[in-house]
Specification:
Length: 258
């Protein structure tokens, strides 16, 4: 079965040295950034550049993103990205699929839920020019987390940090891929406290649901706990907060490198 629409364009993708750890494989957050580059390139290819969104006083913001990693991305590896919108609801919510390949080999896939907003973060309806540019392609599988067996309630690990002004993305808030960095740091600290090596963690899958933006100079709290097991990997659950406000919830599935 063909899992990618044949009419979708391919976009070259490369990751810089800072995306790789000591094992010379990419971090999950940087795979997310590569997928974002593919989406931006596809949008620009149909006339919707970042500058045009500013002129239109609108933007797309990720609400939920789920990723499956079929294998780790190696340093220096050439990749191709493909993406297509697959669903629209109420002219404000859009589902998009993204896939990363090395040649014909599927490296990672994502299903994303996007909200169409004004620049002051108010929901707005997409006009005919959006639907003309972004043709919906239905009937292809979406990405889901693997099923897992839950375990009894575990101790919650907590750490805090303050966001830097230099971390803000073009929308003026923490980019959605950064939230996976926060989650993975929580997992790394749990594994390190257990006596394990965090550098041997292998991304299998993850999902994040975004509830509120994080700005510069905010004190962020990351809560992480072990939640179960899936196909030889461990499952962790996360909450990312500023004060009492939950900005995101997430689930990560991580294995150990062999």
């Amino acid at each position: 079965m063909n899992t990618v629409p044949p009419e979708t364009l391919t976009f070259p993708v490369s990751l810089q040295r800072h995306a790789f750890g000591p094992r010379l494989v990419a971090r999950a957050g940087d795979v997310w950034r590569a997928m974002q580059d593919v989406v931006v390139d596809q949008s620009a290819s149909v006339g919707w550049t970042p500058e045009r969104y500013v002129q239109a006083n609108t933007m797309f913001v990720v609400r939920t993103m789920t990723v499956r990693h079929h294998r780790e991305v190696r340093i220096g590896e050439a990749m191709l990205g493909r993406t297509w919108p697959s669903r629209a609801r109420r002219q404000m919510l859009f589902t998009r699929q993204v896939r990363l390949f090395a040649g014909e080999e599927l490296l990672a896939g994502a299903s994303q839920e996007w909200a169409y907003l004004s620049r002051d973060l108010q929901p707005t309806r997409a006009g005919p020019e959006i639907f003309e540019a972004f043709k919906l392609i239905e009937g292809y599988p979406e990405v889901e987390l693997p099923s897992f067996v839950s375990q009894a309630d575990q101790k919650r690990h907590v750490f805090d940090f303050t966001t830097w002004h230099g971390w803000m993305d073009p929308h003026g808030h923490a980019n959605h891929a950064a939230y996976i960095d926060y989650c993975d740091e929580g997992v790394a600290r749990v594994v390190a406290e257990e006596g394990g090596d965090p550098q041997r963690l292998v991304p299998v899958a993850e999902t994040v649901h975004f509830r509120a933006a994080i700005g510069a100079g905010e004190l962020v709290t990351v809560e992480t706990k072990a939640a179960g097991h899936a196909q030889g990997a461990r499952v962790f659950e996360h909450r990312i907060l500023t004060g009492d406000r939950v900005c995101a919830t997430g689930t990560t599935v991580r294995a150990a490198a062999t």
